[in-house]
Structure formats: structure tokens, C-alpha cells
Amino acid sequence: MTETPPPVAKRVPTERVHHGDTVLDEYAWLAAKDDPDTIAYLDAENAYTEARTAHLAGLRAELFEETRRRTQETDLSVPTRKDGYWYYTRTVEGQQYGVHCRRAVRPGETAPPVSVDGAPLDGEEVLLDGNQLAEGHDFFSLGAFDVSPDGRWLAYSTDFSGDERFTLRIKDLTTGESLPDEVPDTFYGTAWSSDASTLFYVTVDEAWRPNRVWRHTVGTPSTEDVVVHQEDDERFWVGVELTRSERFVVIDIHSKITSEVWVIPAANPTGAPAVVAPRRQGIEYAVEHHGHRFLILHNDGAEDFALAYTSADAPGEWEPLIPHTPGTRLEAVDAFENHLVVSLRTNGLTGLRVLPVGTDDSWDIDFPEPIYSVGLDANPEYRTSEVRLRYTSLVTPDSVYDYDLVTRELTLRRQKPVRPGPDGRAYDPADYEQHRDWALADDGTRVPISLVCRRDTPRDGSAPAVIYGYGSYEASMDPWFSIARLSLLDRGVIFAVAHIRGGGELGRRWYDEGKLLAKKNTFTDFVACARHLVKAGWTASDRLVARGASAGGLLMGAVANLAPDAFTGIVAQVPFVDALTSILDPSLPLTVTEWEEWGNPLDDPEVYAYMKSYTPYENVATVEYPAILAVTSLNDTRVLYHEPAKWIARLRSLAPAGDYLLKTEMGAGHGGPSGRYDSWREEAFVNAWILDRVGRA
After folding, report:
1. Does the pTM exceed 0.90?
2. For the chain: N or C, fewer Cβ within 10 A?
3. Does residue 636 have an active-site annotation?
């Protein structure tokens, strides 16, 4: 291991004053992305990280190769039917990105066609090849991919830097040519009119807030496009989509706690939008079109949401359909001609409920495993008696099923292949076991933990472990399968997910108890889970690594300050570790929209003091920290690169005896490298570091 000294960031004191509190930030200069000193510092950190991990190069290569060998590189997704075509995506061995295709439905063909070893289907039409689009670029990402109702046009958008500013284009699928129509700096979300003459799209303001919905007429310059809706309240985002019935263009306007929906008849794209229900502070609702009515999923007097409906012709009063049931969180409703499917969660698990139209009957689809994730997949057809769903668990690879809404028959269409590992043995889920455990938080709350390990893993505290967490935005970390994770499990590492407050695993209350002035519950819950794993004999603190990303990176920084003795290592990816500084600056991307999640420290001294008491960067102390690996991206617009850069610099300054590494992707965004092989290499880098920390390198 190299003895190269770590980089030392220069100190340039910058004063920040709020609510009578003066703070000197010596590393604020790192926010200047165009400053040569900033880039030089990031380059120096990258060089240091590479030198400090050079001894792991062989292990990184080994882990990458294990992932590659276990993955069926030439593969084809289960085709999804829309009108007269089957749509699917292919991957090809050696190529980074997917190839988006379709094939005409043949007479009498009801089941999706099956590929042999991922080969193209006979009669295939390539709609978009990500590898061709990505040529000459280090980064590539698709934003929109939206085929018009008549199947003629493809609206797609591309990002070549990772900053999530997309250029929107339209391709003529009959000729294969792209139209001159080109719109720069668009956001996610598009919607076609019924006759495919008009395309709606979204743009952002200077703070990267999606604030405008535009109408574009196919074949005209973008300079002639018309703003359909502009949202001036800086708390709110806008989005646009076409209903599954293809009857309405929906403009969804929402803040963290309030919603408003407007609709435009898709057959009259130049018509004025009409509001379904005016916004009321604290009331969230979502709209799904179904025949003569709009279905309304809402929280008006319903903490865990209820389902109602109103007239699609003249929206008014909401008539109850599914009443509120405390503890059963209704998350979405999907409407088909003769059935409704409600996505929900209860007792910490996801589920699907079917409601036949015109009856009082309903039922939940059953699944055998004690821990799993299930949800609807792509289902573009409105008139159908069959729906596509996706299922997985910590030991079950991603599985695609078709469910017959009439016969209730569940048909497995495909389970993601896991090819033999380095020892030549086929993957057998029976070699692994998954568990649901519970930790007791400081306030007596029981916090669920999901775990997976090899069946022969000892329970005497000698096994190393990774504990993953997030705990924000009501996002649930439901169990998921990972091929790369097998390389850890097969080396005796336990993998655990802490379902902490701030997420949505146990309903809206679980989220509310981990946000705003209750945010510290997220951090203490995670520490309680970590200490429970030790107490229960799963692992020991000197072989336990914590991992989280984005808001989960904030979690990592907070628990490093709160309980540095609980972990031997911490992986913080794109970490939101300078949260107070960012949330104090309304000119930064997303800040104002975040105030309903974290509070507004700019105007509220109580929020300011509370955030300052937990923000990782503000609370670095002269203590013995676990080893820390921070991974970020220069072009990230969600969590700016300088947050982890400043954090690592301050850690080195105040606790110089620690082992801190900063790795910056110089040409990527929030999600890291875009190509699948690059992503596997990034995961191999992180997992090699983890294995080194726990003595399994």
C-alpha cells in the first residue's frame, strides 16, 4: 500500500452569517467548478485514491470478471405489446448500451415471442441504438423514449455529460430519419396528442426546477413552440404524460406535500388545460383516467391514502372507492378497461390488489417468499385482460410475469439469467438465505432489517457485513437482487438493508417521522440497526461497513459523526453531506423544492439550528473516524461534487489520522458512469475497497 501523502486543500475562509450565527467555511472555494485550482484538487484526489487502492487492482479485475461472467451479456427483454407491435430492448456482448427495437405482431400471436440466447427477433426493426448514439462520448443517457400513438414517430432525448439537460429529437420510424425538429435543454417527460401531430415536453428554470410544459407541432421549428403551463411557485415541479387510455394529456404539478393536476384532451392538443382539483396545501393527489371517470389517489383525511373518483367530463366531488386503511399505504392505481390494479404496501412489503370493474370483488396477488418486491411493469395496453409485473427478492433474480386478470393465473415469462460463477457452478438460490430482523430504536420504535447471506455463514459475530440505508423522500429500499453482490456473499459477507424512518416502508407515518424536525430519527434508526446486527451475532463493528448514496450519503456522514465506533468503513456515494449550506442557497438546483423535506433554514432559525446540529460537514470533529470512501461526479446536478470534496478536506484537517478517499467521475452525473461495463467496474472498485476493509480481499 502506497505511502503517498494525501492532497491538502488550501484554506480560503469564507464567512456565512444566518440568524446571528457566523460560520467560517475554509473550503467553500471548491464550489467554483471552473476554477483551475478546483479541478487540480479533484485530479490530485483521484490520483491519491488510485495510488492508495493500487494493491486492489487485481481484486477489482476479479470482481469485474465475476460480474461479467455471471451476466448474460447478449440478452433480450420480454417483449411488451402495444397495438400491432412487440417492443423490447436488446444488449450485445461487448456493447455498453441497449438497442431499442420492435417487431410486428403476427396473426394469432398472443404470447410474447421468445429469443434464443438474446438473438434479434426475426423481422426486427431497430428504433434506437444507444451504442451508435454514444459514439465519441464518455457519457450517454436517454431521457425520453416515447413512440407516438400511431407508431410513426419516436420522441427521444439525449444527455452526453451527465447533467440531465437533454436535447429532444423526433425520429420518423417509417423512414429511419430524424426530423429537423430539435429542442435543447429539456427535462424528463413527454406526451403525444392522439393524432401524433403534437408533442408536449418539459423544461427547467435556472435552479433546474421543471417549471414549464411546452407544446410542439411536429415539423415546425422549436422557436414556434408554445408554453402550455408555467409554474411560478418555486416549491412545485411540473411533469407531463399521456394517459394509458390515450384520452388525456396530464400535467402533474407537485411539491413535496401538495399536488395539482390539469388535463388536456389528447384529441384537442391546442385546447386550454382544465384543473381536476385546485391545489390545497398539504393535500396530495394523482389522477388516472378510466372510462367516464378520473380515479383520484389522495391523502385528504387519509394518511396512508384512499382511492376515489370524479367525472372526467366535469371533475367535481370525489366519490369514495377504496377507503383509507391505516397501515396500508396505497401508492398507485393503474386503470385498464375492465380492471383496476392498485399498488400498495403493508407490513413493510409491496403488494398488488386487483379490482374488477362493476363488482365489489377484490383480491391481492400472493407471493411465497417472506421478503420480496413486486410491482407492475410496462403495461401500455388499456384494453387487456393481462398485466405484466416484475418480481424480485434478495435471492430471486428479476422475474417478469404475466398475470391473467380473469383466471388469476400467473405465468413466468422470464427470470433474469445468472450464468455460472468463476467456479463453474450454476447459481442456486438455495445456497443463500434471506431474513427479516428487527432493531429497537432509541425511542422504542421497531425498525425492520432485511438480510441475505450464504447458508453456511456463521452467526457468532465473525462474519463481515455491509449495511445499506437511505431514509428520505418516502423512498423505500425494497429487497432487490444483485449479481455483483454475489461476489460479496460468496466471500462470506452478509448484506443488510436498514428500513429506517424517512423512507416509506411502513407507510406515511414512517416517512413523516424521519423528515423536517424529526430527521435525526433516520440517523439513530440506522445506528440502532448496526448495533443490533452486532448484538444478534450477525457481525461485529470492526467488520461492518455502512453504505449509502445521495440522501443516503447524508445518512453516511451523519452516522460517521454520531457513532464512528459502530463501523470499520463507510461508503458514501454522491453524498449530500453539506446539506445546510446547500439548503440555505435558493439559487442552487432544487433548493426551494427541498424546503418541505428538510425545512427552510433561511427563514426559520429553529430549522437552521436543527440542520446545523446534524449536517455532516458542519459536525466533523477531532475523533477517530472509520475509513471513508466518498464517490462523486463532476456533472452531478442533484448533489454537487463540492459537497463530498469539502467534507473530505475537512475530515483530513480535523481528524488527520483517518483514512479518507475521494473519487470523482470527471465526466458523469448523479448516477455515475453510464455504460453497463463502466458501472460494473465502478461497483467492483467499491466492493474491492469493502472487502479490503473487512479482511476478505
Report:
1. yes
2. N
3. yes
